[in-house]
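User: Just a sanity check before I run the rest of the batch. Below are the structure tokens for the first item. I only need the designed sequence back.
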């Protein structure tokens, strides 16, 4: 496995950055989780736009243009001869003296890892996930906006620890006011009266790329879909629920807090969306290009 760091490739054991990098010292940086399917990178431009927005929000100057960033991602896949991959693109504030002032770091550091990710076992896609609502609230947007895909994931990790303790694969996180926000690494949708409903980002959710793809597919299938605030009550009484994320894709949720959702099995709208999503990932995307011989 060859890892990209600031324009050069390193073997995994040599891929290291400074202990003075503010990404490590303060969680100061941004990232994207991107997928490649069948020789193409899915929604690459959207991921790079969101990376740029996250960087802007924390006044981090990306050291590469969007075009250069795109080429770096594609090159990393070519160098590793990977057609299907999970790509972790990280931009840290870079190396600087101790002290949290970002002005101490003259240059951001870009890291690209092309690996594999399997979040949930395959049977979860046919049986559905069993989730728990956790006590850890999603960060309030006024403090650290969850729309920023930053290197500060402790809020999500605290929720994940609660899910682990409840023996469930994911956690539903609420806003401080008790509205459903999202999961630790996925957005959530419910189906109510044949309509898809997902929390707006201002409640405390990431503007998910997969979430946007689900809106597109729903539009094509003539299934109504909208943003709306809701509480756990609405999940308990919904006919279907599912999560979306780059790693998870589209995955049914069939139980929450030990209660079945709908009839306790993945619903027809969810199944249709999963199938359409899979087709789209194989059809669309930025071509990685030919691998070099040798
Ligand atoms: N909410 C949060 C908090 C996330 O971190 C999503 C929603 C879904 O967004 P996308 O754009 O992926 O549809 C995410 C995505 C990882 C990993 O390395 C994390 C994500 C995606 C892929 C891998 O754990 N988070």
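Assistant: Here's the designed sequence for the first item:
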């Amino acid at each position: 496995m060859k890892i990209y760091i600031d324009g050069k490739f390193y073997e995994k054991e040599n891929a290291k950055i400074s202990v003075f990098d503010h990404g490590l010292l303060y969680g100061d940086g941004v990232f994207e989780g991107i997928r490649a399917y069948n020789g193409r990178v899915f929604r690459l431009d959207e991921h790079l736009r969101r990376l740029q927005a996250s960087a802007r929000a924390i006044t981090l100057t990306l050291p590469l243009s969007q075009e250069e960033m795109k080429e770096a991602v594609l090159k990393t896949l070519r160098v590793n001869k990977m057609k299907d991959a999970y790509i972790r693109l990280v931009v840290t504030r870079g190396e600087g003296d101790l002290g949290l002032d970002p002005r101490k770091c003259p240059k951001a550091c870009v890291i690209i890892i092309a690996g594999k990710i399997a979040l949930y076992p395959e049977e979860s896609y046919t049986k559905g996930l069993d989730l728990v609502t956790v006590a850890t609230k999603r960060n309030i947007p006024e403090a650290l906006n969850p729309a920023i895909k930053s290197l500060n994931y402790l809020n999500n990790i605290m929720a994940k620890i609660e899910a682990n303790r409840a023996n469930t694969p994911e956690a539903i996180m609420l806003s401080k006011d008790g509205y459903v926000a999202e999961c630790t690494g996925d957005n959530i949708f419910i189906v109510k009266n044949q309509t898809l409903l997902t929390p707006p980002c201002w409640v405390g959710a990431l503007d998910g790329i997969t979430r946007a793809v689900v809106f597109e597919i729903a539009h094509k299938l003539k299934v109504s879909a909208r943003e709306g605030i809701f509480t756990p009550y609405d999940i308990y009484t919904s006919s279907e629920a599912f999560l979306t994320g780059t790693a998870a894709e589209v995955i049914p949720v069939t139980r929450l807090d030990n209660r079945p959702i709908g009839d306790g099995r993945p619903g027809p709208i969810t199944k249709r969306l999963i199938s359409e999503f899979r087709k789209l990932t194989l059809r669309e995307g930025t071509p990685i290009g030919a691998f070099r011989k040798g």
